[in-house]
# Entry
Amino acid sequence: MRRIDFHIEAGESLIVVGESLSEAVNYLKGENTFIITDNNVSRLYGSQFPEATVFEIDAGESSKTLGVVDELCHRLSERGADRHSFLLGIGGGVVCDITGLVASLFMRGIGHGFVSTTLLSQVDASVGGKTGVNSGFYKNVIGTFRLPSFVICDISMLKTLPESEYVSGLGELIKSAAIADRDLFFEIAGNIDRIMNRDTDILERMVYQSLRIKTSVVEEDFTERGVRRLLNFGHTFGHAIEMLGDMPHGMAVMQGMLLASRWSMLRGYLSESDYRELKSLIEAMGITPMTIFPGGLIELVRGDKKKSGTNVNFVFLEGIGKAKSEIVSFDEIDAFVSSIE
# Structure
């Protein structure tokens, strides 16, 4: 078991990698706890939940709406929740995003924590304090920054993930290494078989290393005014591909990383050899580069929440393990996409 004590001006958070769901009761705070989960997680693990009132949502991205948030706030009020209550989100990225947003809004803010059940949420969604829901085709444009008091990453729960969700999580793991840790990148590349077989020991180590990257970035820039933008590598294209193609988040981000790294190479930032290393690793995940793009891609990119007028902060690679953010125009993005055959 590995711990990260995460401190920022807005609060502090304990991240425990390798802890189990059954121990979550020891981390709870507040006078009464309410659990938010989805129907898949409840079916698989509900018997192991701490004793509390449980609210289930439908699994999947379709639940990330203000309507679901409003319904959960209403149900909390009906069950007598107050400012001293505590929310525990048990699930993947959708559950974590919704639980965090409900905790931000209900009674103007109550405490919350997570048991993160998917690889994607363990290395990304549950950590860092971002909450959010979608609006129409635009992803995560309604949200807040609110730090959970704790995050439990139960590595054993990754065994029950569907293959597509597991591979999706690997996308965010690769992203962390690509932007900040060359050694981790090549460790992932050298252990593909163990990773794909869901070896618990290596996954615990890599989740921990990925979280060290993310927490160090977020400690420096909690509200994403500078260096935290680097965590969006692959996301400008990835979010649009995800929304248009009904593709799991991490897989869409891998497609976005392929596009962003190719553009980085064409602009002279990234060597061809590093581009090929990244491409090879992503292809080992079963992801092949897109050459035909769904209609509406550019329109969705123009709605990216990182935009400023007719420009957007785009993340390029300067080498495996080194990234930079640069302001580019939507016209430049359109020209790049149009040039791909």
